[in-house]
Predict the structure.
Amino acid sequence: MDLKSIIRDIPDFPKPGIVFRDITTLLQNPEGLRYIIDHFSDAYSDQRIDYVLGIESRGFIFGAPLAYKLGAGFVPVRKAGKLPAQTHSIEYELEYGTDRLEIHKDAVQPGSQILVVDDLIATGGTAAATAQLIDQLDCRVIAFAFVIELSGLGGRDKLPGAPIKTIIKY
Ligand code: AMP
């Protein structure tokens, strides 16, 4: 399936020089959406995955149906101040400034095996911060899954601890 043809490229969004890979056009395509979820659920079906962690916000869209298909729980990793109960949090570097991600302290059992999901890996900073959050919960990331990889940015090098699967590469 030609998935690139159903991803919309928006030049200079959200700022000049960035080509935004818009997955809303993939999501609205029934075959495209099914392809992504089935591809990842086939890829991980022989592994024990206790929780799928989705990174806000597009990681939620792919993470929840994947958790359902794998028979796992779904856990959101959110931007600062969104989760209502007690959280662990981690600050990480952006191109300009910093950002913060949070997870509920009781979101997963210690010792759980975790699959981290997001729509896209660019520099890998967001996913690396998520992996550090998971360390605080005494759990193990057994894999990372991203629909899209911007392979020129070296994001994989920031995630040495677990295998990474991506479907569409630019
Ligand atoms: P990074 O931390 O640099 O790997 O950035 C990954 C996060 O930023 C993901 O949650 C993506 O949704 C978002 N992102 C970064 N670059 C792009 C892009 N060119 N198009 C769409 N989303 C992007």
